[in-house]
Design a protein that fits this description.
This protein has 325 residues and is an alpha/beta fold. It has 2 domains: 198 residues, Rossmann fold, CATH 3.40.50.720; 94 residues, UDP-galactose 4-epimerase, domain 1. The strands form 4 sheets. It has a 7-stranded parallel sheet, sandwiched between helices. The termini are far apart. The structure holds nicotinamide-adenine-dinucleotide. One of its GO terms (biological process) is D-xylose metabolic process. It is found in: Golgi apparatus, Golgi stack membrane. Belongs to the NAD(P)-dependent epimerase/dehydratase family. UDP-glucuronic acid decarboxylase subfamily.
């Protein structure tokens, strides 16, 4: 049985990856310090003998007994509300965290795949963004703690690949959504659905002409699975290229939720990207991958998930954990 370590395994994407690798017959070791993750995302896996959960901060030394074939490094605060609240931890998990994972991979002779992000492109001046684009990032702006951590993480991973010959893979993930996102994580999709469920007006930052593209989580997981098993060490974009303006998206959410809320406008935050759309030619050519789930279907499944949550989730403070650096 192949053994895989998934850091950030109790998070939104990490927990879906745990499910997928369990389904593929792997022994899955999820590691998480629960800084933004939720135990309820993985507790259905607890009874399985091929699943383990390690409550651990990956920015500290990692010890895993036994063999390891693969490491997926997904631990990192991922939404602006999280990484602005815990900037130092974000920088540490993107630097010390990946260093620990790469060191472990060398000892175990394991292949590492890291979760990078479309944020490495910053506020892009090239549209859609191909992997060759180097980005337009402000290192000292508020988003720098996340963007630069991810850029450093890519550089460190590539250095281990070229210098130590380690098997590495880099996925640049574009906006992904689905069940197990947190309603209060500040990202646009749960924010709109949460507002609709609470009967509040939907808040658009800026004039709503900025675009985003949303990938359903099952499509992303399929892309990551294929990339891990491929022999391609350079970064690969995985995302859904279907682009929509935030204003149109708000209207879709109002239609989906059957509510009659209005849209209200607030000033655009600093360094908010105006456009986001992946160029997925590489994923198509190398992985024979493209997204399959339409926004209509994905949104319906996600909305049903949010509706099924206990009502108090709707009113949880945007950030409810206490941490020291
Ligand atoms: N969701 C997206 O659209 C998206 C887009 C681009 C990149 N990503 C990347 O994918 C990964 C997962 O994102 P997500 O959306 O699932 O976010 P998430 O917050 O739901 O999951 C992140 C998980 O990492 C854990 N974590 C954070 N720091 C840790 C540490 N030091 N040690 C151990 N665990 C730690 C958190 O507790 C959480 O469970 C992140 O690396 C993120 O940057 C996500």
């Amino acid at each position: 049985m192949k053994r895989i370590l998934i850091t950030g395994g109790a998070g939104f994407l990490g927990s879906h990856l745990c499910d997928r690798f369990i389904k593929e017959g792997y022994h899955v070791i999820a590691m998480d310090n629960l800084i933004t993750g939720e135990i309820r995302n993985i507790e259905h896996l607890y009874p399985l003998s091929n699943f383990e959960f390690h409550h651990h901060d990956v920015s500290q030394f990692i010890h895993i007994p036994g063999e390891l074939d693969y490491i997926l490094h997904f631990a990192s605060p991922a939404s602006p509300i999280d990484y602005l609240k815990i900037p130092i931890q974000t920088l540490k998990v993107g630097s010390l965290g990946i260093h620990n994972c790469l060191g472990l991979a060398r000892v175990k002779n394991a292949r590492v795949l890291i979760a990078s992000t479309s944020e490495v492109y910053g506020d892009p001046t090239v549209h859609p963004q191909p992997e060759e684009y180097w980005g337009n990032v402000n290192p000292v702006g508020p988003r720098g703690v996340y963007d630069e951590a991810k850029r450093f993480q890519e550089a460190m991973t590539m250095a281990y690949h070229t210098f130590h010959g380690l098997e590495t893979r880099i996925v640049r993930i574009f906006n992904t959504y689905g069940p197990r996102m947190r309603l209060n994580d500040g990202r646009v999709l749960p924010a709109f659905i949460g507002q609709a469920l609470r009967g509040e007006d939907l808040t658009i930052f800026g004039d709503g002409s900025q675009t985003r593209s949303f990938c359903y989580v099952d499509d992303l997981v399929e892309g990551i699975y294929r990339l891990l098993l491929s022999d391609y060490p350079q970064p690969v974009n995985i995302g859904n290229p279907v682009e929509i303006t935030i204003k149109e998206f708000a209207e879709e959410i109002i239609k989906l939720t059957g509510t009659n809320q209005k849209v209200v406008y607030k000033p655009l935050p600093t360094d908010d990207p105006k456009q986001r759309q992946p160029n997925i030619s590489k994923a198509k050519a190398i992985l024979d991958w493209e997204p399959k789930v339409s926004r209509e279907e994905g949104l319906r499944i996600t909305y049903e998930y949010f509706k099924s949550l206990p009502e108090e989730e709707l009113y949880k403070a945007a950030y409810h954990r206490e941490f020291t650096t």
